[in-house]
Amino acid sequence: MTALTVPWGYVMILDDQSVSTRVRNDAPHLVALDIDGTLLVTGQPVPGPTVLAVRLVRERKHHVVLASGRSLTGILPVAKELGITDGWVVASNGAVTARLCATCTNGYMLEDVLTFDVGPVAQMALSRFPDVQVGVEEIGIGYRVNRLFEPHEVNGAQRVVSVGELGVMPASRAILRGPNVLDLLEPLRRHGVTATEAGPDWIDVTPRHLSKATSLENIRSALGVPRHNTLAVGDGLNDIEMLSWAARAVAMGHAPAAVKAIANETVGDISQHGVIQALKTLI
């Protein structure tokens, strides 16, 4: 066993295999990290040891890319906690790609934004489930909603609008929430959008043929990182495509069986800071 002493009094223990892997992993990697359930418990800050691990990975010149179902507004505070002020982020399950930039207005530049016509989606959902909550993402601001969500459920400001105003302009992501809403998954997909289960009563709707993986592949190509130097860590159903894309796919210990089945390996759960087990092999 080898003990790696790092700042602030933390000690990371690497076994001999990890040390060997570390030597082989000196070349820059693209490290794609989910946020909720991977880096943090929703509503809580990123734990100190995880912040440290991400910092050390970045000091090794690896490219850490936050890839989340969250809106860009929800990703930016996490990037700040991690000390990431430059590089790429993937928001809204791949519909929004941005470059962080300390000197840019609001701290970022939009690189790629894909949208779809929200109106027919909202009308379909409300015709079948009149009580469904609908949220339509407004990049960098928050959401247009037909009814307010709880503050901890979405990021950014909420603006209540009429049903007609929900689809007044194309959007990158919409939220449908309510009992039995998962019955809409297949009808929405037939309608020509990407519908992703994000909970027992929650669907994320994004443009067709889209996932975190599609945006990550564009970033990988732009950075010139070889495919075999890609690592992804996630815990949710919306991480399946990302894990399938990565050369090394890591599932969190609490992830559903369908996610673990895609992964090459499984680490500890969120309470055990399992993501550090994956990151330490690059430190």
Automatic annotation (TrEMBL):
The membrane spanning regions, by residue number, are: none
Q: Name one GO molecular function term.
A: magnesium ion binding
Q: Which domain of life is it from?
A: Bacteria
Q: Which UniProt keywords apply?
A: Hydrolase
The answer to whether UniProt assigns keyword Flavoprotein to this entry is no
Q: Name one GO cellular component term.
A: cytosol
Cross-referenced Pfam families, in alphabetical order?
A: Hydrolase_3 (PF08282)
This protein is called Hydroxymethylpyrimidine pyrophosphatase-like HAD family hydrolase
Organism encoding this protein: Promicromonospora sukumoe
